[in-house]
Backbone:
């Protein structure tokens, strides 16, 4: 687990990208991780069914915040219908090795909220699909 | 500073050192999957169990497993005797009469029993219920629901930034108050409540007092009669016993006046098709087949603590908390924030903290790689966290098997976390 906290993860934790809120988001969703209380809100701006801008806000551990920050860097231009299909690997490919089973929910929170925004209702946990 | 604490066992047990206590806990000899020594600093969540307690469970199931109270044959008689004898042990342990000790699953169930059985029949609209700002959800939510059912009002004894009760307004808070519920010890900050002040003043105001003893009974010498608590609730699993068993102490006169909580077999005297006369307390409150094995093993846990001596337990934890506060203070210039009382005299074996910008869950994960078990989160005290402005804290808690070596391991673990997070 200590291998997880590599420099680029800490960088995303301390300086999250796309952090904040949008003036007039087209869709948004938020959720908390019941295990530890981590909170994430994701707001999306759409253009012709594709994501044109994105922001997230929230608080929590390095895993949830860095995973969300890294995930959202990859979604601009993506179709909402594709976002709805993103698998858990969309996160795990970014954060790589070292997530222990007890912390998997922390890593999946941002993806779950992003998919919830895309489908307009609370999405399933990506690691349980 | 690093002298070994020696346990003053009575002469029948000889002079046991800390090594001998630790050797009584099989789990402490098992290395983690990374080959680390298990450094268990989460006893406020649940304690480890000594071999004698584990063996008591095995003995019951292997030697005399039978249902209690109505069996005529030998093993049923033995099961009944051991089960009732365990009640005697727990009564002695807290200074109560045997008939005042009701078996329940845990502290939470004990508190719910009082909220429904006593609360619904004594609290009415306009009454006040007084709690403190430190309460665990188990000693808060049942009273919120009681207040919703009855129209009663909830009030709170405030605590200061170190989690110490502020009693300046106590008499005003007690005015019109029918019921008071207070944690003996805060599971989040370790604060010991000033019960010797709160209970007499509550009684003077005409209120009945419940003490949530989940963190009290395991750690402090206890005499419910001297305290003059009306109800005292505690769990076996936090004091060397198994999960699934706990006790509600209630003053005899109060229990006698209370209607049943759950109903069914075992709690009755006579049943006709359309009506029932109920058993006397404590069995009036013990519907259905009891948790026989765990009750018996809980009695063995009480024996173990009695043999150690609760004054020794308290002194051991006070000294260890003092040592930990002193050691961890060295990390304060690097961003360690320690919450709760700084005087180990006022706290009981719990240290809550945050370290720089490391989230407590990340801290707990890094410590876990070194075999160190701490808890991270809101500790079932969300209102206190909100009031204090903490989204979560890390918590280390101590018990009889912890030593200065465990505190040193925690310190080293925090050093490692600082390296990982470049602090
Ligand atoms: C102060 C306090 N009250 C109540 C409880 C609830 O105990 P149990 O879960 O055994 O019912 C706890 C356990 O964490 C506690 O620390």
Residues:
């Amino acid at each position: 687990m200590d291998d997880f906290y590599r420099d680029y993860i800490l960088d995303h934790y301390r300086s999250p990208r796309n952090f904040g809120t949008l003036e007039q988001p087209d869709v948004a969703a938020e959720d908390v991780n019941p295990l530890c209380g981590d909170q994430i809100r994701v707001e999306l701006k759409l253009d012709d069914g594709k994501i044109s801008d994105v922001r997230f806000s929230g608080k929590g551990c390095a895993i949830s915040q860095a995973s969300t920050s890294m995930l959202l860097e990859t979604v601009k231009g993506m179709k909402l219908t594709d976002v709805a299909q993103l698998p858990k690997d969309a996160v795990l490919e970014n954060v790589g090795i070292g997530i222990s089973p007890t912390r998997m929910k922390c890593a999946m929170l941002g993806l779950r909220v992003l998919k919830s925004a895309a489908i307009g209702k609370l999405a399933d946990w990506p690691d349980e699909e | 500073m690093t002298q070994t604490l020696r346990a003053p066992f009575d002469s029948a047990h000889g002079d046991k050192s800390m090594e001998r206590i630790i050797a009584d806990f099989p789990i402490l000899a098992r290395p983690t999957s990374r080959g680390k020594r298990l450094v268990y600093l989460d006893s406020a969540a649940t304690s480890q169990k000594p071999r004698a307690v584990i063996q008591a469970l095995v003995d019951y199931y292997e030697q005399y497993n039978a249902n209690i109270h109505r069996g005529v044959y030998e093993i049923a008689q033995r099961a009944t005797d051991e089960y009732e004898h365990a009640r005697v042990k727990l009564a002695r342990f807290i200074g109560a009469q045997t008939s005042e000790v009701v078996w329940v699953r845990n502290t939470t169930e004990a508190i719910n029993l009082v909220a429904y059985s006593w609360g619904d029949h004594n609290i009415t609209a306009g009454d006040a219920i007084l709690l403190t700002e430190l309460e665990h959800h188990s000693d808060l939510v049942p009273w919120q629901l009681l207040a919703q059912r009855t129209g009663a009002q909830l009030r709170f004894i405030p605590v200061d930034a170190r989690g110490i009760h502020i009693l300046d307004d106590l008499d005003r808070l007690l005015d019109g108050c029918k019921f008071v519920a207070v944690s003996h010890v805060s599971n989040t900050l370790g604060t010991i409540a000033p019960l010797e002040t709160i209970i007499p003043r509550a009684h003077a105001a005409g209120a009945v007092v419940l003490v949530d003893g989940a963190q009290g009974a395991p750690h402090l010498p206890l005499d419910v009669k001297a305290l003059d608590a009306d109800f005292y609730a505690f769990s076996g699993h936090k004091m060397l016993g198994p999960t699934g068993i706990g006790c509600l102490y209630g003053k005899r006169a109060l229990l006698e006046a209370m209607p049943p909580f759950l109903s069914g077999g075992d709690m009755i005297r006579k049943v006709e098709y359309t009506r029932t006369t109920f058993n006397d307390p404590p069995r009036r409150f013990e519907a259905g087949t009891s948790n026989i094995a765990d009750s018996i093993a809980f009695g063995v846990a009480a024996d173990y603590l009695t043999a150690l001596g609760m004054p020794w337990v308290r002194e051991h934890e006070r000294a260890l908390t003092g040592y930990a506060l002193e050691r961890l203070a060295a990390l304060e210039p690097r961003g360690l924030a320690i919450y709760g009382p700084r005087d180990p005299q006022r706290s009981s074996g719990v240290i809550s903290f945050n370290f720089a910008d490391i989230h407590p869950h990340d801290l707990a994960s890094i410590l876990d790689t070194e075999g160190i078990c701490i808890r991270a989160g809101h500790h079932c005290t969300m209102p206190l966290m909100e009031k204090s402005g903490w989204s979560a804290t890390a918590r280390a808690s101590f018990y009889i098997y912890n030593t200065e070596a465990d505190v040193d391991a925690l310190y080293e673990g925090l050093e490692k976390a600082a390296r990982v997070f470049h602090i």
Summary: Residues 104-119 of chain A form the longest helix (16 residues). Chain A has one domain: 2-120.
